[in-house]
Write a structure and sequence with these properties.
This protein has two domains: about 1-80, no CATH class; about 80-160, no CATH class. It is about 70% helix and about 0% strand. It contains eight helices and no strands.
Amino acid sequence: MVFSPGEWRLDKATSKVLEISLRVTKAWEGKKYPTMNLVCSEIYEMKKKLKGFTSSSCNYASQFATVLSSKVEKRFPNCEANNATPAIANYIDPAFKGVHIEAIGSMQVTKEKIKRIWRFLDDEKPRQKNDQDFHAEENETQDLVIDSTAQLLRAKKMSGD
């Protein structure tokens, strides 16, 4: 089988676009370092690079990057900054300091989630299932995410950072 010049261009363009996803996947596969802090940053960078390909002069790369970009946005809306755990992990990471969540406009929401968690951790009374002060607008799934994030912050607080 011999590929035509057009098929080679399509293969080359597709490979270049897929390299972006491969890099993100490899970063998230880390076993010797934490990866939750990489979620927002890697998605942000992937979207930025895909956007560069959507305006590419190569029609193949542009079309493929446009479709992939829409799928990434559907799977990871707002670079996962609406999800408390990766947003807070990005914020407390000394390397990022929340730069990605700030760039997408979610810094204030993330800070409010952290404040609610701190209030929860400082509260002496046991948390009740329908605690209005802590979970006024959160659903049960988000409660579980905040609970796991609270554990991260509790560990950070105990370490003195």
